[in-house]
Amino acid sequence: MNFKPGLAVVLVGENPASKIYVKAKEKACQEVGFYSRKIKLAADISQEKLEEEIEKLNGDPQIHGILVQLPLPSGLDSKKIIKLIDPRKDVDCFHPVNVGELALIEKGADLDKLLMPCTPKGVIKLIQSTGIEIEGKKAVVIGRSSLVGKPAALLLLAKNATVTICHSRTKNLAEETKRADILVAAVGRPNMIGREMVKKGAVVIDVGINRTEEGLAGDVQFEAVKNKAGYLTPVPGGVGPMTIACLLENTLLLTKNPFR
C-alpha cells in the first residue's frame, strides 16, 4: 500500500514570514514521508478564484489537511475562506465547526485523540513534557486571540487548571502573572514579560515571535527570566517547531476522518 497523508498549504502573496513558515512545513512533510503540496497564488488574486482553489482541495482525495497561511493580503475575506474549508480537512482547527467542538471538550478528555489548533496543542505538549501535573495549577494566558489565547485557555481548562485570561485591558497584569504556576505569553509584544512578573519555579511558555532590530524576540525576556522560571521555552526554537510537529500529527489524524 502506497498511502501517504497529504497536506496542502495555500500561500497567497509574498509575505516574507509566511514564506519561511511554509518552507519549514514543506521540509517537515518531506522528513516524515507525507505528501506535501504548496499552492502559491498572487497577492492580487480575486476572492472568487481563491475560493475555487479551496473547493478543489476539498474534493481532492490526495489531500487530507488544508492550511491557508495567514494573514491573507488585504481585500481577501479570510473568515469566509476558513469557513469554506471542509471541517474534515481543517488541519489548523479554525473552522467554526471545529472551534465549537473545541469549546465542548469535556474535562479530563484525552487531548491526544482530538483535533486541536496546532500552536495551542503544542503549548499543552510542552507543559506536559516537564512532567508537572496541569490539574489544580493556576494558569495565566496573556492574549485572547482566536488563534492562540482563547484555545490555549480552553485546553488548559480541559486539563483541570484554574485559568485566567489577561489582555490589553487587564489591570495590574504583574499581580496576575506572579501567581501563575503556568504562564503562557501570546500577546505579540517583544520582551514585555520581565523577571518581576514571573513566579519562582513557574512553567513559562513563550508563544511570541517578534521581529526586532536585534533579531527575533519572544514576549518574555529570556535572559532575565531563565534562572527564575522552572521551565522556559526559547524563541526561536521552542513553540515554533512544536507547532509544526502538531500540524503533522493533525494531518495524520485527519486521514481517519474521525470527527464527523
Describe it.
- The protein folds into two domains: 6-91, Rossmann fold; 102-240, Rossmann fold.
- It is globular, with a radius of gyration of 19 Å.
- It has a five-stranded parallel beta sheet. It has a three-stranded parallel beta sheet with strand order 2-1-3, sandwiched between helices.
- By secondary structure, it is of the alpha/beta class.
- The model has no long low-confidence stretch (mean pLDDT 93).
- α1 packs across α9 (239-254), α5 (118-129) crosses α6 and α5 (118-129) crosses α9.
- β4 (138-142), α6 and β5 form a beta-alpha-beta unit.
- The chain has helices at residues 16-32, 47-58, 78-84, 96-103, 118-129, 149-158, 173-177, 222-225, 239-254, and strands at 6-12, 35-41, 65-68, 138-142, 162-166, 182-185, 203-206, 210-212, 215-217, 231-232.
Q: State the fourth-level CATH superfamily of the largest domain.
A: NAD(P)-binding Rossmann-like Domain
Biggest sheet, in brief? 5 strands, parallel
- The structural class is alpha/beta
What's the N-to-C terminus distance? 25 Å
Q: Note the beta-strand portion.
A: 15-25%
Mean pLDDT: 93
Largest sheet: spatial strand order: 5-4-6-7-10
Number of strands: 10
- Classify the helix fraction into a percent range: 25-40%
CATH architecture of the largest domain: 3-Layer(aba) Sandwich
For this structure, the CATH topology of the largest domain is Rossmann fold
From the alpha carbons, calculate the radius of gyration and give it in angstroms: 19 Å
- How many helical stretches? 9
Instruction: Please trace the helix and strand order, writing H or E for each element.
Output: EHEHEHHHEHEHEEEEHEH
Highest CATH level, the class of the largest domain: Alpha Beta
Shape: globular
